[in-house]
Design brief:
361 residues, 13 helices, mainly alpha, two-stranded antiparallel sheet, 6 strands
Amino acid sequence: MDKLVKFIKALIVIVAAAMLCMICKDYYKDYKKAYNEEYTGTYHREGTDVEVTIPEGSSIKEAAGILYDKGLIKYKGAFVDRYQESKFSGELKAGTYKLNTGMNTLEMIEIMCPVIDESGIIKKLVIPEGFSVDQIAARCAKEEICSKEDFLRAVNSVTAQDFEFLADIPSGTNVRYKLEGYLFPATYDIYKDTTAEDIVNMMLQAFKNYYTEEMQARAEELGMNSFEVLKRASMIEREAKLAEERPTIAGVINNRLNADMLLQIDSTVLYPLTDGMYDKTEVLYEDLEIDSPYNTYMYKGLPVGPICNPGLSCINAVLEPEEHSYLYYHVIDEETGKHIFTETMEEHEETMTQEDGSDDE
């Protein structure tokens, strides 16, 4: 009798588990179907008009949250993915829009990313990866967009109240510019009425859009904030021409810091030596004596602040560094910028093909 009761109980558990699996399977199928419909759907149904306001400086994830709260979308991730994979990526505009609950997500994206008549664009401002604040100011002046003085004034007028990630910069830090590292390298549309303040805000907004929550979480996992990430990334940007070497150099930086060694990175000398213009390429022995908190030949640890404005590739190299035992590297091909990496000083010296201008670490 006891065996029969146990058998019946076991059978009930098995049946219940099977039913639960079926329910979960059906739920997942329904979820996947609804998610994909928002992600790729082209439907247009009867619906209700809803007015939404996207504040100035909102990221696409923040916009998705607003639409979700208004009942316009069910899956914020599907909306963000569709936006980022569409031709409208990077074109979200602040403003008040009338949307409808019957719209598909692409229709909503099109409305919130209005096409601007490019006839109003007078030129394109191209800021390469690795440009410093001073180089950007010089380019703005050369392109007759604004004076160097106006640009630098705009740079120095921004506070952490304007962009919250700037709170990562320690107060009282003796940096050349607090925004160094945060002015995202990209191509910017310049209109007749574009001001220096507009340019700086566009660059900071671009950094906010590209430095995602996932990247912030990864940085936190590594014990870093945005300021510390950008210090590392800026050195990698000035050191590495080849994308595949960037995670390797990130690993060298980590290894030297962990070994309590001086980083001895030439670009941290060139930054203060050239007032951020990098118009000198060769570092002489006497240059290494420049007393600057950026000089990693003189002071241990990272420089006091970023030494340029790095691109995504170098930022990602910091977040996903290569793990190895290298402590040294130097250029072996001046044309391509290719480096050779070694573990010991003896190996480093053996592989040096030239002493002067070798950009060695």
